[in-house]
Design a protein that fits this description.
The chain is of the alpha/beta class and 307 residues long. The protein is built from ten helices and nine strands. The structure holds phosphoric acid mono(formamide)ester. Phosphoric acid mono(formamide)ester binds next to helix 2.
Length: 307
């Protein structure tokens, strides 16, 4: 039963619950009209303390397409946070007006803190370099649509594995499904933090390897998850400039990949996928964007307990 629950990290859901949400997302995708009024009279609070295009707008579109309304802000500066109001008081206030809150915040753990004081379910729409579980739902729907399963795949994560919250959430979630193996492709400076390797991978005896060159492993992968180097999380601009173009996926490199490998990217993209790649049928990142809205429609419906 997902009604009334929070989604702060993948550990809040069981694999069966993830599958339940994915299944509903696919039903909504096939027949959106059947779901057009299930949230009539309900309101989503969309509190974005950090920039977003896809997550915020897909949440807004999702609630609107379910018949509900949306209130919120897209930058902290337009709220009373700019006058010094705390996150806790903001959440208590907004929770008095809405039925569910989706929030993005630059601080790791902010959504978790909010959930301790909220009167309504909290959805973590990204907290610093920590987690982004609704991007994971988006990724899972896309994988299910393209591969028909969430099991027995070799998944390569490439780019900024240190600050990439989408990477952290998807790795954790894919370890819940059997037979998945991971290839971690990054420069030393941006490798997956030790916590994720020890607690999420080593402690569960999950098979993985770490490499620096994408070309060396591209042919082994069923899924390649490209990521942007997260400029906003660097303390040193020179370091960002040195690392930002570590990987650029293009048509030439894709000659090394399997014919049925899919390329995912949470977006936004900067330079890490060449524009020429968009025509490759293995490029699934814009389909992924579309599935994100259906994934969020399904999540909102489940947390609100509407049918
Ligand atoms: N994938 C994602 O979180 O994109 P936005 O930052 O545009 O929301």
């Amino acid at each position: 039963m997902l009604q009334g629950r929070n989604l702060l990290s993948p550990d809040d859901f069981t694999p069966e619950e993830f599958l339940e949400v994915i299944q509903l997302a696919r039903e909504i995708y096939k027949s959106p009209k059947d779901f057009a009024h299930i949230c009539d009279g309900k309101i989503l609070g969309a509190l974005f303390f950090e920039p977003s295009t896809r997550t915020r707008l897909s949440f807004e579109a999702a609630m609107t397409r379910l018949g509900g309304g949306v209130i919120g802000f897209s930058e902290a500066g337009s709220s009373s946070v700019s006058k010094g109001e705390s996150l806790i008081d903001t959440i208590r206030t907004v929770g008095s007006y809405v039925d569910v809150i989706a929030m993005r915040h630059p601080k790791e753990g902010a959504a978790s803190l909010a959930s301790e004081y909220s009167y309504v379910p909290i959805i973590n729409a990204g907290d610093g370099g920590h987690q982004h579980p609704t991007q994971t739902l988006t990724d899972l729907v896309t994988i299910m649509e393209s591969k028909g399963t969430l099991e027995n795949m070799t998944i390569g994560f490439c780019g900024d594995l240190k600050f990439g919250r989408t990477v952290h959430s998807l790795i954790r979630t894919m370890t819940m499904f059997k037979g998945n193996k991971f290839v971690l492709i990054s420069p030393k400076e941006l490798e997956l933090p030790k916590y994720w390797k020890t607690v999420v991978l080593d402690n569960q005896n999950i098979e993985y390897r770490e490499v620096e060159r994408l070309e060396d492993v591209l042919g082994d992968l069923d899924i390649l998850y490209m990521t942007r180097v997260q400029k906003e999380r660097f303390f040193n601009e020179a370091e960002y400039i040195r690392l930002k173009d570590s990987y650029i996926l293009d048509n030439k490199k894709m000659e090394l990949a399997k014919k049925d490998m899919i390329v995912l990217h949470p977006l936004p993209r900067v330079n890490e996928i060449a524009l020429e790649m968009d025509k490759d049928p293995r490029a699934w990142y814009f389909k992924q964007v579309k599935y994100g809205m259906f994934a969020r429609m399904a999540l909102i419906s489940k947390l609100l307990g509407v049918k």
